[in-house]
Each structure stands twice: as C-alpha cells, then as structure tokens.
Predict the 3D structure of the following.
Amino acid sequence: MSLLGAIEAGGTKFVVAVANVDDPDTVIARESFPTLDGPTTIKQVTAFFDQYQDIAAIGIAAFGPIDINPQSRTYGYVLDTPKRGWSGYNFLGAMQAWRDIPYYWTTDVNGAGWSEYVSGAAKDVENVVYLTVGTGVGAGIIQHGHLLSGNSHPEAGHIMMRKHPKDKYVGHCPFHGDTCLEGLASGPAIEERWQESAKSLPDDHLAWEIEADYLAQALVTYTTILRPDRIIFGGGVPHRSILLPMVRESFARQLADYLPVDDLEHYIVHVEHGDNAGVLGCFYLAKSLLN
Amino acid sequence: MSLLGAIEAGGTKFVVAVANVDDPDTVIARESFPTLDGPTTIKQVTAFFDQYQDIAAIGIAAFGPIDINPQSRTYGYVLDTPKRGWSGYNFLGAMQAWRDIPYYWTTDVNGAGWSEYVSGAAKDVENVVYLTVGTGVGAGIIQHGHLLSGNSHPEAGHIMMRKHPKDKYVGHCPFHGDTCLEGLASGPAIEERWQESAKSLPDDHLAWEIEADYLAQALVTYTTILRPDRIIFGGGVPHRSILLPMVRESFARQLADYLPVDDLEHYIVHVEHGDNAGVLGCFYLAKSLLN
C-alpha cells in the first residue's frame, strides 16, 4: 500500500510519521526526537523512513527562515538562523539524496495552517490566517485555497506594533526589540516582562490585558491587508482560556467597525487539530503532489 | 476597430477614456468631470461611451469600499461610504444595464497598481505593493501576477501603527484616530497636524521625519507579511522629493536586516505612469477579459 510521509521540523523537536495515501487522517507510525544539528537530525529522519519502501511523497513543514522559491539557487535550504548547525543547510537536498520522490517543502506554520484549512477550524472557508504564538510568533496564510507567498514565505510575526501604554518592557526580538509582534507577545516576551512563568500569571494579571491588546492589534493589521474569513490561533500562549475572549473584545474596539467581519466567535478561533496540526498538514500537502 | 473603455472612478473626479484594443497605451479620447452622486455621475459616464459603438470591454477602478466578491448579493455595489449619493449604489449594475459587455470591476488602487505591474515601475517583477498616499492611503497588492483579495479588497491604509515619539497629533481617521496609517500619514493628517499646507512645509521640517517614519513602518509590515519584490508609491504626498530617500533610510533602520530585500533604491520607488496609472490599468484589465 502506498504511504505518505510527514516531517514536522520544529526548532525544538522533529516529528516524523507515515499514513496511508487513502487515509491521511490516520497516523500509522510516528516518532519524535530533539532537534540537533542538520546532518545528525536528518540521519534520524531517514532512518525512520528507511523502514518503509513504498512512500509516494513526503510533506516537510520546517522551522524558518527557509528558502521556498523554486527559482532560487538555495531552494530547499534553511537560511540564516540562530539555531546551531542549520544555517545554510540543504534540508530538501538531503532528503532528495536519500530518496528521489516528490516533496512538499514549506514552513511549519504553513503546514499547520493547511491542516486547519483542509479538515480543521477553517474547513468551510477559503481565506485563512493561522497564527501561532509560542516560543516565536508566525503565520501561515491561505488566500482562495492557496498558501500565500511573495518572493518567500510570510514572516508575519515581525509586523510593526504600537506599544501598550502600561507596558515598559524592552522587547524580546533580537532584531526589532519592542517594535514587532514577536518581540512583545511571544511566550518568552511574556515571561521576561513579568519575570515569571506565563502559566503562573493569574487570569486577572495585567499581562493578559497587554497580551490581548497586542494580538488584537496584529489581527486588525492582518484583517485590513488580507481580508481573511477566519483567524486561527495555535501555539502555547493561546491555551490560556481567558485570552481569546479578551482578544475578540480588543479586536472589536481597535477595528471600530471599519470593515465587516464574521461574528467574532467564528472569526477568531482556536486550532482544532492541536498537536496533530503539523503532521496532518504534511500528509495533506504530500498528497496534493500526487493528484 | 474594437475599443477598450476605462472608468477611473475617484472620490473627487471621474476620468473616462477609450483606447484601441491593440494599443491600450494610447488614449484616443478622454474626459473628466467632478464626482457627483451615483446616478448623476454614471449618466455622464454613459453619455461619453455612447459616442462609441464598438467597445469590447471596460475596466472600472472605483473608490471604495466596494463589493468585489462575485458570490455576493451586492457584487458591483459601492458599500458604506461618507461620499454622498454612493452608499449602496449598484455601480456595475448601472453599467451593465447601459450595455451588456464584459466589465473588470476593481478598486482605484488595484487599477493603478496593475498598470505599474504591466508596463510601469514593476514590469519586471511578480510581487508588488502599490501604495497611494494622498487624501487617503490605500494599497493595491499583486502576488505572483494576481491582484490579492481575501473575501474583499485590501484596506491596507488602516493597518495599526506605532506613534512617533515626537508626534502629538490626535489623528485623522474617523474610525481609528491616531492608531492607523491613514490617520497618521495621509495628506489631510499632515496638514491638520501642522496647520499648514503640506506644500509649504520646508524639507527640514519635523513633518517629513515623522511622515517617513510612518511610511517606512508600514512598509516593514507589508514586507514581512507579503514579501513583495517591489513597493511603489503613488499619490500626492510622495511628490516631495526628499521623502522617499528618508523612507528608505527609516525602513532599513526599522527592518534591521531581518529579511533580505532588493537594494532599497529598487525596492522602494515612485510610480512611473503618474496620473495615467489609473486609466492605463483599466485598459489592461479590460483587455485581460478578452483573452
């Protein structure tokens, strides 16, 4: 039986998995291991897939920045990254050298966003922003059923931001300090700002008012530029259950009815596939290469 | 001989024109008149086109917001607008009732941006942001040769913004005050902030430092989300010759080398077609319907 492969290549851990081509929703086998340097990690990846002869295609959803421009000399490479042993590594080339099959090569957030579009929280719409807020902040954007890219993938965690008047934090982004979304609203930004684990901050802490303001502000910017049908939150930070209602309220205030959007309970939602989103997205993207 | 029609429908004035299908770059006849209410203005439009029997298609580039979703019940309508006599007016329907030919229906900024993409400042690239800064601020966005839209056209003049530390102005946007780009950087915002005509503000006035900061900030946001190959400035405000060099400098500082972009002299440029951009775009879009 023909199989699909998935490589969810995160900065902290890799998840590899296989599923039947006819049933991409059911994981047959799955392994995960910590992300080491490029060559060492890919050796573990290929060792896993070596167990399966009949892999028709593999989807790769990789931490960025990566080169996704097929015209580029470094297509398939991981670009400059603080992650040791990955800058300039030819990830896709290493896989192709291992076995010459079709690969769908994209970002981790595109993979997760795509799974939500195919069978998750956005399965009934065409235009989606999937926003993950965790160690970093990133977005996968789907417009009319296609992953959006210009000359490369979005880096929508680094949009410019207005500072909350009660926020004195200097920001966590090594490039943009407190001027970009990731610098202000990522998990590490919250913990460094309050010198406390985000989990231990109570619901009524100012931290969440500030976080909701930033996330809502970003959603207004995405909404005005991209006009999505739905915005989906993934990543660890939105696990805090009071956060999304606060984001919706702040979003309504900041957008100020300038544009029509769906009811906010349907417009701003949680991811449905949870931890499976990345692997599922890889399967779906791999399968799209076979049609 | 078969003709193309153009309707550049601005909030202040309308321009109508015709060109040969085989030579859309050469205007054969052109008229312009002030924008009155919907029905009165469209009567002047059709009176102009009544002079020509063989019009194969017409491109319409209209001030917004407009409904460009072909699935929508109000497709072809002008939506809620402060402009008297236009809210809820079926612009496209009125034209179709006049003559049943193909119409390309889009926004004024999409029309102008498209002309720059086809034969102007962006003719050699695929991913473009055309930003007009005048009475309002708006963008036409092209990704891989297609005008970008989600469930409607971009309203990228209303992205959220960080206030410049020296700027005390309350903002000009009736919806967003000083929190959005249009509220801070449009022509009327400059003049209200300084209580002076923008033209009379000297080159070394703080006004331009602030304006450049805002425009550059917006470009960083567009760049991170959309990854364009080029950003093109239209509208009256960028006529100030010192402005674009200041925008490039501020952009470099704010982006902080986070992403690779083209040399800034090629990345951030002026419109090439000037006042003809809108009409030319209409011709090109009309012609695209015939292929």
Q: What stands out?
A: Chain A touches chain B through 43 residues (CB under 8 Å).
